[in-house]
From TrEMBL:
Binds 1 zinc ion. The gene is ribD. Residues 1-113 form the CMP/dCMP-type deaminase domain. Converts 2,5-diamino-6-(ribosylamino)-4(3h)-pyrimidinone 5'-phosphate into 5-amino-6-(ribosylamino)-2,4(1h,3h)-pyrimidinedione 5'-phosphate. Pathway: Cofactor biosynthesis; riboflavin biosynthesis; 5-amino-6-(D-ribitylamino)uracil from GTP: step 2/4; Cofactor biosynthesis; riboflavin biosynthesis; 5-amino-6-(D-ribitylamino)uracil from GTP: step 3/4. Its cofactor is Zn(2+). GO terms for molecular function: 5-amino-6-(5-phosphoribosylamino)uracil reductase activity; diaminohydroxyphosphoribosylaminopyrimidine deaminase activity. It comes from Caproiciproducens galactitolivorans. Pfam families: dCMP_cyt_deam_1, RibD_C. This is Riboflavin biosynthesis protein RibD. It catalyses: 5-amino-6-(5-phospho-D-ribitylamino)uracil + NADP(+) = 5-amino-6-(5-phospho-D-ribosylamino)uracil + NADPH + H(+); 2,5-diamino-6-hydroxy-4-(5-phosphoribosylamino)-pyrimidine + H2O + H(+) = 5-amino-6-(5-phospho-D-ribosylamino)uracil + NH4(+).
């Protein structure tokens, strides 16, 4: 066994980002006599799985070869036939798996099928890397709730705009490109009506040199205040727009929005407006596995308080804005005591152009030392 082949499989798996939702990202490499004879990845939802693509791209007969795969081969009929059976049919002698599939339809049965038919199986090779790559899939397939990433761009002193509201652009071009990659990978991009009223964003994906996938746009707007001519309601995009409202929204405005093709989700009314936990459940029922939250300070506060945020990506520019009335990344009333703070774990920092990105997971648990790229 050579761990570098699993690293290659993980690298291949990432090529599917943005195209496989709600399926996982999977890469596969076929090896014989310490040389690669075939490789592939899951390229799009409903398309061939990684193992099948590796077999199809093999330069020679794969019988007796080793297969490195980043996720347990499936054992059930879904959009495609089971990969575990295809492995048996092709006579592959050994399968090295990074992580078991949490899908209840698989959940160890793929590995068991291989073992029972004489195929040697090695598991847990670069498992942490595989689970991190598929953190969206792991949550969604086991809970039905989308994985939520809170993204914000701020100054070194935590401001997302000046005291006059000027906010474009706090971070540099490289950081903004990274945000568009996040949009490309996510099923939804969510913001509040306040951001729409102040910035009138498109919320589409713009990647240099290639066409990105536009995420479903979700606007949190308890009273349906959004203007009918807002750019987010009229983009040159096939991706739909969803408006999350409450009983405070007027029926006439809802009818006008629906006539424009906007899907309306009515949630219970909470102290802060839209019931975000209810909304996340509804988005999950729509088959949407992930949400990139690009909200203002009020929505960010509500999202943290209502417990929908799994991960944060804070882009920090090396500038200081100051101002007691300038908005911060998270607004609201704030916590009363330090013990009530929202903890982050498994922190990672990364330099992006002239800015810094801090990534972390929300909640308590065993943390790992901070890492820096």
């Amino acid at each position: 066994m050579n761990i570098q082949y699993m690293r290659r499989a993980l690298h291949l798996a990432k090529k599917g980002e943005g195209y496989t939702n709600p399926n996982p990202l999977v890469g596969a490499v076929l090896v014989r006599n310490d040389r690669i004879i075939g490789e592939g990845y899951h390229e799009a939802y409903g398309a061939n799985h990684a193992e099948i693509n590796a077999m199809l791209h093999a330069t020679e007969d794969v019988r007796g070869a080793d297969l490195y795969v980043t996720l347990e081969p499936c054992s059930h009929y879904g959009k495609t036939p089971p990969c575990a059976q295809a492995i048996l049919n092709k006579g592959i002698k050994r399968v090295i798996v990074a992580a078991a599939d949490p899908n209840p339809l698989v959940s160890g049965s793929g590995i068991a099928l291989l073992w029972e038919n004489g195929v040697e199986v090695i598991t847990g090779v670069l498992e942490d890397e595989s689970r991190r790559l598929n953190e969206i899939f792991f949550k969604y397939i086991t809970t039905g709730i989308p994985f939520c990433i809170l993204k914000t761009a701020m100054s070194l002193d935590g401001k997302i705009a000046t005291r006059t509201g000027d906010s474009q652009w706090i971070t540099g071009e490289s950081a903004r490109k990274q945000v568009h990659l996040l949009r490309h990978r996510a099923a939804c991009v969510m913001t509040g009506v306040g951001t729409v009223l102040s910035d009138d964003p498109l919320l589409t994906t713009r990647l240099p040199g290639k066409k990105g996938k536009d995420a479903v746009r979700v606007i949190v707007d308890s009273s349906a205040r959004i203007p009918l001519d807002a750019k987010v309601l009229n983009p040159d995009s096939d991706a739909p727009t969803i408006l999350a409202v409450t009983e405070k929204a007027k029926n006439k405005k809802i009818e006008e929005l629906e006539q424009k093709g906007v899907k309306i989700i009515v949630t219970p009314l909470t102290e802060s407006g839209v019931d975000l936990a209810f909304l996340m459940k509804k988005l999950g029922e729509e088959g949407l596995d992930s949400v990139l939250l690009e909200g203002g300070s009020k929505l960010n506060d509500s999202a943290l308080r209502q417990g929908i945020v799994d991960k944060v990506n804070f882009f920090i520019a090396p500038i200081i804005l100051g101002g007691g009335t300038a908005k911060t990344a998270v607004g609201g009333r704030g916590v009363d005591f330090l013990k009530d703070a929202f903890p982050l774990r498994n922190l990672r920092t990364k330099r992006i152009g002239g800015d810094m990105m801090i990534e972390g997971y929300v909640g308590t648990g065993e943390g790992t030392p901070c890492s820096q790229d």
